[in-house]
Every structure is written in C-alpha cells, then in structure tokens.
C-alpha cells in the first residue's frame, strides 16, 4: 500500500467536515452499505460518519460525490483507524 489511501464515495453529495456540537448521536449504518458493513453511518440530520482502518496509510480522504471539492481529510487515531463526521451542505 502506498503512503496515502484515497476513498471516493459516490453518494451524489458534497461533504464538509464538522464539529461535534449539536450533532444527534442517532447514527446507523447506511442502507447503501455492503452487507455486514457498519460504516459509513448516517444520522437523522444528514451527517455521515466514516471509520476506515488503514494502519499503514499516512492519510485518508473521503469525497462525497463527483464534485467533492478535494474531499475531507479524516483524522488518524492511535489504533490506525481514520475517522470523521461530515455533512451535506444541502442538509
């Protein structure tokens, strides 16, 4: 694996990173996930939460749709996973 992992999720939305303020914690796996996959998760406010395990990657970026504007850089955790919550600007 190279030093970077790039993940594009074609959901037809443009995502932005967000803070944890006022985000409802009613996240559930997306109905569009592959069977048995817990992430990405979505909540009732239109937020999407990502968790990607890539311990040897230097960075992971998600782009929601073809106009993802460069995507959102996920935050690397000590366990080698990359996590963040993003929202559609239409929400």
Give an account of the 3D structure:
With 91 residues, the protein is mainly β. It has one domain. Helices cover 0% and strands 40% of the residues. The chain has strands at residues 4-9, 16-17, 28-29, 41-42, 47-53, 59-64, 72-73, 75-76, 81-87. Strands 2, 3, 4, 5, 8 and 9 form a 6-stranded antiparallel sheet that branches. Strands 1-6-7 form a 3-stranded mixed sheet, with no helix packed on it. A hairpin with a 4-residue loop joins β4 (41-42) and β5 (47-53). The termini are far apart. The model is unreliable at 1-17 (pLDDT under 50).
Could you write a compact summary of the structure shown?
Strands 2, 3, 4, 5, 8 and 9 form a 6-stranded antiparallel β-sheet that branches.
Count of DSSP helices? 0
Radius of gyration from the alpha-carbon trace, in angstroms: 13 Å
What is the CA–CA distance across the termini? 35 Å
Total count of strands: 9
Could you give a short account of the major beta sheet? 6 strands, antiparallel
